[in-house]
Please model this.
Amino acid sequence: MGKGMSYQIPEDEYMYSGDVACPGCGAGLAMRLALKALGPRTILVLPASCWSIIAGPFPYSALSVPVYHTAFETGGSTAAGVRAALDMKSDRETTVVTWAGDGGTFDIGLQALSGAVERNENFIYVCYDNEAYMNTGIQRSSATPFGAWTSTTPIGHTKDQPKKDMVGIMAAHRIPYAATANIAYPEDLVRKFQKARAMKGSRFIHILATCPPGWRIASDLSVKVARMAVQTRIFPLYEVENGVKYTINVRPKGLPVSLYLKMQDRFKHLTAEDMAIIQENVDREWERLEDRVASS
Model:
């Protein structure tokens, strides 16, 4: 937040204790914070993901809002259908939210998502990004960063492509709002959800959500690792309005990326040369973001 400013996170809880997330799960914390901002007039669309499990088995749920479980690839189209049904009932107050992982957003669900936001369907699409298909065994996705170990990119054959720029893809659709968020910055996250809730049309929020088993970190390091992702500029916090106005929300310290990478055993095989490549890529992307801010 800006100098001299303060922000109050709502106290109301819409996520019960007793969910089945792993200890230290960033996706669980992300949901708790998001629902605090969204409030009780919310319907969640959950494509196949870790959250299909975390919420609990039917007829039980760790969430106090309605949940619609749907197929992996249909997060965008299902949300559009739920919104249309509510509009037919003259319900303009309930917020429809798709809550999907990176596999269901960057990969399997991209077609339905792109189709929905191209029509500017009136819903919020959230990607909680733990950078792999964690629920099914830590397989690589197009959100997996360069050099990361996964079960399908083992040591010696780790991922050699950069992470897909999903916010850039959404901004190219000229939707009203797209933003990044991070569990280590709860005030920024809550503010962005409240801002998105007050808007109409397609809104997209990309949350970095640490995964202790998949990232090979201790559960008590989830928030610390997430914060380091911002401070090293690996995951900058910014928002884009109408595809053209870019705003950086948190000015990072610009720490070396090696500090972030060395905290996670999924990167323990990286050489100094590998880290230099990652640093170069991060610096280039940060400069690109600064240019977009300056020209918007």
Remarks:
- Residues 26-295 form a domain with the Rossmann fold fold (CATH 3.40.50.970).
- The CA atoms of residues 58 and 139 lie 27 Å apart.
- The chain has one domain: 26-295.
- The mean pLDDT is 96.
